[in-house]
Amino acid sequence: MSTLKLAVAKDGIAVVTLANPPMNAMDAALLEEMANLFEGLAVDRAVRAAVITADGPAFSAGLNLKTTPGLDRLGQRRLVDALNNGFGTLYAWPKPLVAAVNGHAIAGGLILALCADWRIVADTPMHISLAEVRVGVTYPVAPLQIARAELAPSAARRLILLGETIDAASAEALAIVDERVPPKILLARAVAQAQRHAGLPPQAFATTKRELRAAELERIGAARAGQGEPRLAAWLGEEMRRASAAVLRASSAVLRGAASGLS
Digits of tens for pLDDT over the chain (263 positions)? Predict the structure, then answer.
């Protein structure tokens, strides 16, 4: 069953929606589906730009902490490959990509937003974080390269290294997102920005984007080819299992309360 919805308007703006509420948790299947979808949109001449958003109270809470710690070695390898391929595909996508962050953006959920060329967040209570260090997970190549490239050094230190959780206003102040708008106009604003950026000369845009991100894309490409990815050995160890269980216990009640308040 697909966890992504796709709608392409007559003006060539594609809207891709994560459709696994309430938390839109990620797994290998979702990331693989996302990579395949955006690879197809990249070569579709009718598509000029895209918006990525989500159903429910969360944009995405990242990996599913209930199932990820139990993955065997093959499952871990598939997930690392899917993270590098999925995020690598979006970060290299040759057309304008806008993120409409409707709610919680945690760990991989925030990486997904950082893949976009323009990011808009709803002005609503939410958690925004890169929680990997708190759950004992070391970053695969693609997520780390994207976060390091897209965050200012002070924001990278606070989010990547220290695992801080911030809100929408702080994300705007730290230039993690470009705009903060009322929830009711989030999608319309994102579509309008996609239309605006779609007016750029497409070949020049694609070339400039590729060259601007050349260093990161080179490292991500090597990881996608099976080179230079240290996570392909044992990735999720006992430290991760203990840390993720503690975080899951501490956060589940908070997230459920926030979700019910936003629904």
Answer: 679 999 999 999 999 999 999 999 999 999 999 999 999 999 999 999 999 999 999 999 999 878 888 888 899 899 999 999 999 999 999 999 999 999 999 999 999 999 999 999 999 999 999 988 988 888 999 999 999 999 999 999 999 999 999 999 999 999 999 999 999 999 999 999 999 999 999 999 999 999 999 999 999 999 999 887 776 555 667 776 677 666 666 655 554 554 444 33
Is residue 143 reached through a cis peptide bond, with omega within 30 degrees of 0 on the bond before it?
no
Q: Which of 32, 132, 238, 239 is catalytic?
A: 132
Give the CATH number, domain containing residue 46. Answer: 3.90.226.10
Cα distance between residue 236 and residue 73, in whole Å: 9
Q: Total domain count for the chain?
A: 1
DSSP class of residue 4 equals E
Active site residue 132: yes
What is the C-alpha radius of gyration for the chain, rounded to an integer number of angstroms? 17
Give the residue numbers spanning the domain of 78. 4-262
